[in-house]
Every structure is written in C-alpha cells, then in structure tokens.
Write a structure and sequence with these properties.
By secondary structure, this protein is mainly beta. The protein has four helices and 37 strands. The chain has an eight-stranded mixed beta sheet with strand order 27-26-34-30-35-32-33-31, covered by helices on one side. The radius of gyration is 29 Å and the shape is elongated. The relative contact order is 0.08. Bound molecules: 2-acetamido-2-deoxy-beta-D-glucopyranose (NAG) (9 copies). The site of one 2-acetamido-2-deoxy-beta-D-glucopyranose has 6 residues, from loops. Residues 384, 401, 403, 423 line the site of one 2-acetamido-2-deoxy-beta-D-glucopyranose (NAG). Residues 48-169 form the Bulb-type lectin domain.
Length: 484
C-alpha cells in the first residue's frame, strides 16, 4: 500500500549490527560489499514506527510497528478513489484496515500529509493545508512523538516522559469498526469517553454507517447493537461470566476476555492466548458483530463466530412478555400467565404487539413470582440494581414495590449475588439451550389457582413470611409473601 519510511535507519542499534557483521569479515572488499548489502537490506526491512515534530508522512509513505504487524499510511478502500489515513495489517496479505483517521473527510487526491505539531497533536492536511482530521488532547506535550505499536495502537506521548505507557492520545480510544486484542470496549465514566464500534457504510466507504455497538448505561449497563437509534440486537448485561445474550462467549483456547466495571471505567477486553494468532472483531456494514481469525494456509480470514446467532436475536421479535424459542414453531410464545394481545396478529406470525396478563396483578392481595430458567435476561434499560444484595432481599424488595415486574441476580458467579429489578414491561427474552440465566417474573397470585385472599399485604411493616406454593396449573413454584 505504500513504501516504507526508512529515513531513520541510521539510528544507533542498526549501526551496531553493521559493525558486528563487518568485524567478522577478513577481506576489506567483502566488508564493503556486505556493508552496502546490509544497508540496502535495512532500507527494505527495517522500518520506522515513530514520527516526531517536523517529520511527516505523505501519501505513499508508511510507518510500520516494531514487529511488522501493522502499518500506517494512506489507502483507498475497495473500489473507492478517495484516500484515507489508516492502519492495516501488514503481515496479512489482504491488508485489512483496522482503523481510519479521516473516515468522515476523505482526501480526493494524494496530497495528504500527516504531521505531529509541537503541541503534540496529529494533524492531517491536504494539498492546500486544509485540516481534514486531527487528534486532540487536553494535556500539553513536550517533544511529542507518535508511535505505531505492535498492538495496532497509534499513540502520542511526550518525549520527556519516562512512563512509556503514559499516552496523551491513542487511536484505541477512538475505535472504528474493529475491536483488536487489548482494546477497551466500553466507557471511561470519569471523562465520559465512549469507545464503541461503528460500522463502515460499505466496503468502499469507511464513513460511519447505520450500525453502532456499545455499552448503554441506562439502568443496569448492557451491550446494545443499534441501527440508527433503534436497538437491533441486545447482547444484554454482563452477568459476571459473560453477556447474558451471548451464551457462546465461553473460555476457549484462542482468546481470554475480561469485563471491568468500577467507578472509573466499564469495559470489555480480550487478548490472545498465543500472540501469533491474528484475530479481530468487526461490526460489518450490514450490522453483524463477527470475529475472524487469519488462516495462513488458506490466505484468508476465517469466520470464528458471529455474535447474533439466529432470528431470536432480532430485538423484541416476540414483543412484550413474549419468549423466543428458536427450535419451536411458531418461535414466539407468551410467558406463563400471559396471552397474545392481538390473537389474530399473533396467529399470522406478527408477534410484535406482544402479550398481556391473563389475570391483572393485585399488589394489595399479594403477588407471586414465576421462575424462568435458561433464558436471556429482559431488556434492562428500565431497571435498578444493587450488587451487594442477595436474592432473598431482592425478592422482598421487588414484592414490596408494586411497580416492580421482575427480579434476578445481577451476578451469577458462585451461586449468584446482587439484585436486579425491572420496572417496566419485560421485553426481548429468549431461550438458550445452554448458558442461559434465571429471573423471576411477577404474577397475580390468583394465577396459581390458589385463593390468596388470606394475604394481607396492606401493611408492609408487619412481619413477613414466605410461602412456597406449587401450582399445578402453571407447573411452577410460587413465592408468596404474606404477613402475620
Ligand atoms: C515533510 O517533511 C520533509 C522533510 O522531513 C519536508 O521536506 C517536506 O517539505 C514535508 N512536507 C510537508 C508537506 O510538510
Ligand atoms: C482542503 O481542505 C479544505 C478544508 O477541508 C477544503 O476547503 C479544500 O477544498 C481542500 N483542498 C483540496 C485541494 O482538496
Ligand atoms: C476530542 O474531540 C472530541 C470530538 O471532537 C471531543 O468530544 C472531545 O471532548 C475532545 N477531547 C479533548 C480532550 O479535548
Ligand atoms: C514534560 O514536559 C511538559 C511540558 O514542559 C511538563 O509539563 C512535564 O511535567 C514534563 N514531564 C516530565 C516527566 O518531565
Ligand atoms: C474462565 O477463565 C477464568 C480465568 O481463567 C476463570 O476465572 C473462570 O472460572 C473460567 N470460567 C469457566 C466457566 O470455566
Ligand atoms: C503459537 O502458535 C505458533 C504458530 O501456530 C506455534 O508455532 C507456537 O508453538 C505457539 N506457541 C505456543 C506457546 O503455543
Ligand atoms: C441504512 O439506513 C438507510 C436509511 O435508513 C437505508 O436506506 C439503508 O438501506 C441502510 N443500510 C443498511 C446496510 O441497512
Ligand atoms: C418503586 O420503585 C420505583 C423505581 O425505583 C420508585 O420510583 C418508587 O418510589 C418505588 N415505590 C415504592 C413504594 O417504594
Ligand atoms: C377467596 O376466598 C375468599 C374468602 O375465603 C372469598 O370471599 C373469595 O370469593 C375467594 N376468591 C376466589 C377468586 O375464589
């Protein structure tokens, strides 16, 4: 995609290599021949990974990360004639692009130049010095430089900084459509920085397409894939082990993953078990989250996994209080104690209007809960959570609040902990054959076929006792709290 920038090949480490070769030779002429040979070799194989103030990268020049994995320079995607500044795989023959700087402001010719300013800002200008893109930073830099790391991260730091990890700008903070190993996928809660993926418009156009994929912080945080503003797919909340809606996210021999959530940050991150594996996660122009690995033998990307599994991953396909079961026909059914809101629509496979309660809730008389297992938790955008409570406290809290529609553990590790409460219609629930979760949905106690008129929940300050009643009608265990 361009010639490597080699003007810094005269740096000390490379010269010491030449001396070593030179001193092992007997004949002066051989030394001279080897010397010039080594020089030309260096010019080809040793590339610079850093640019400093007053240096630049013009169209046709590139810099390469130290181990030769990634290259930065100008490129034209697909059939496009436009020029973009980007980072791509160097070892991989297809030169797949992983990051684009000026995705919204392409160059129409090859006049682009990337510069590092004295203030420590990366600036991309065109032939008339018009600024097409720049990095930004709130910190002031001394002797700044930009380096392309082996991870594919383009970083800016001060030359006087002894902490080599102290970046004041990095491309990993501004992802495009690709999540590389080591990138944080999520938010900095202090600065508000939101690292989400956004699809390319098409293979020929890296500008922002219709789809975004990132963490939503309303209610209990969850990972949402949107088409414009509308949710397309909900990976769901993190349950301590994985995202509730991605059962296939399990420990494996290829990559490890971690989810960090504290008062400063909330993000997902993955890293490779064997660093010689090449893997990327990409949000495609048509809105699929896909993980690929590079296969040298075939010289092509192999699809490792697609996050969206099947039709049941279409957001809210069964409407409110509906459950999607991919192996059933029809795939949508109402939750227990619910019936289709519009039976005729339902019969014609239009499930979008969802289901309604067969028996209205009667909070005063006392409601019960039906347990659902092996499912993806409902949409948590209108939920509340407390990570220190246990399931009993959680049940009691939900029961005492008449607008609470369901509860669950927020973390499934070690038998479960934390409390998650829903305060809205339950939506986007699906069945999983493995790695599903449990939650408890509020039901009218009378739905159990048992007369609960002895319940006297009018005064919640009275001592509460719990009844566990098995309903033959629903084939479910009810937890009913009554008072003495
Ligand atoms: C880029 O840098 C080179 C020297 O490193 C200089 O000759 C050239 O004028 C610079 N180009 C631009 C457009 O700044
Ligand atoms: C350079 O960029 C500026 C500002 O983006 C724009 O107005 C100008 O037309 C561009 N010049 C060329 C030659 O593309
Ligand atoms: C950097 O630019 C982005 C977008 O222009 C802006 O939202 C952000 O606040 C800026 N950051 C700093 C540190 O100035
Ligand atoms: C580097 O230089 C900047 C600007 O002069 C200064 O604010 C900063 O403290 C310096 N850092 C170190 C580690 O000396
Ligand atoms: C997955 O790996 C992590 C880290 O090695 C470990 O803590 C966890 O228990 C493993 N989970 C499962 C389900 O094996
Ligand atoms: C990593 O993968 C490479 C290539 O497949 C292999 O040669 C190497 O032995 C692996 N390293 C480890 C530690 O498994
Ligand atoms: C993106 O949205 C536009 C406008 O809604 C639509 O015309 C286009 O087909 C969409 N593209 C994809 C790939 O969904
Ligand atoms: C029930 O919970 C909602 C949402 O958290 C809250 O606004 C409301 O005050 C609660 N009601 C009672 C009676 O605690
Ligand atoms: C439940 O029992 C009470 C008193 O025992 C009675 O008045 C009421 O009608 C019963 N309700 C139903 C639905 O059977």
């Amino acid at each position: 995609m361009g010639k490597e920038k080699y003007k810094e090949t005269w740096k000390a480490p490379k010269i010491s290599g030449i001396f070593y070769l030179g001193t092992t030779m007997d004949s002066l002429t051989t030394v001279a021949v080897i010397f010039s040979y080594v020089l030309s070799l260096l010019r080809i194989s040793v590339a610079v990974d850093t640019i400093i103030v007053n240096q630049n990268i013009t169209d046709g020049e590139t810099i390469t990360s130290a181990g030769g994995s990634f290259e930065l320079g100008f490129f034209s995607p697909g059939n496009s004639k436009n020029r973009y500044l980007g980072i791509w795989y160097k070892k991989v023959a297809t030169g797949t692009v992983v990051w684009v700087a000026n995705r919204e402001s392409p160059l129409t010719d090859s006049s682009g130049v990337l510069k590092v300013t004295e203030q420590g800002i990366l600036v991309l200008v065109n032939g008339t010095n018009g600024i097409l893109w720049n990095s930004n930073s709130s910190r002031f830099a001394e002797d700044p430089n930009a380096q392309l790391l082996e991870s594919g991260n383009l970083v800016m730091r001060s030359g006087n900084d002894s902490d080599s990890e102290n970046f004041f700008w990095q491309s990993f903070d501004y992802p495009c459509d690709t999540l590389l190993p080591g990138m944080k996928f999520g938010r900095n809660r202090v600065t508000g920085l939101d690292r989400y993926l956004s699809s390319w418009k098409s293979d020929d156009d890296p500008s922002k397409g219709n789809f975004t994929y990132g963490i939503d912080l309303s209610g209990f945080p969850q990972l949402l894939l949107r088409n414009g503003l509308a949710v397309e797919f909900r990976a769901g909340p993190w349950n301590g082990v994985r995202y509730s809606g991605i059962p296939q996210l399990t420990n494996n021999s290829v990559y490890t993953f971690n989810f960090v959530s504290n008062e400063k940050e909330i993000y997902f991150i993955y890293s490779l078990v064997n660093s010689s594996v090449i893997m990327r996660l990409v949000l495609t122009p048509d809105g699929y989250s896909r993980r690929f690995t590079w296969t040298d033998q075939k010289n092509e990307w192999t699809l490792y996994s697609t996050t969206q599994k099947d039709d049941c991953d279409n957001y809210a396909i069964c409407g409110v209080y509906g459950i999607c079961k991919i192996d059933e026909s029809p795939k949508c059914e109402c939750m227990k104690g619910f019936r289709p809101k519009f039976q005729s629509n339902w019969d014609m496979a239009d499930w979008s209007k969802g289901c309604v309660r067969s028996t209205p809730l009667d909070c005063q008389k006392g409601d019960g809960f039906v347990k659902y297992s092996g499912v993806k938790l409902p949409d948590t955008r209108n939920s509340w959570f407390d990570e220190s409570m246990n399931l009993k406290e959680c049940a009691s809290l939900c029961l005492r609040n008449c607008s609470c529609t369901a509860y669950a553990n927020s973390d499934i590790r070690g038998g479960g902990s934390g409390c998650l409460l829903w305060f809205d219609d339950l939506i986007d629930i699906r069945d999983f054959t493995q790695n599903g979760q449990e939650f408890y949905a509020r039901m009218a106690a009378s739905e159990s076929g048992i007369n609960f008129s002895f319940c006297c929940l009018r005064n919640i300050n009275l001592i509460q006792i719990s009844w566990y009643i098995y309903s033959k009608v629903l084939n479910q265990l009810f937890t009913v709290h009554t008072c003495l």
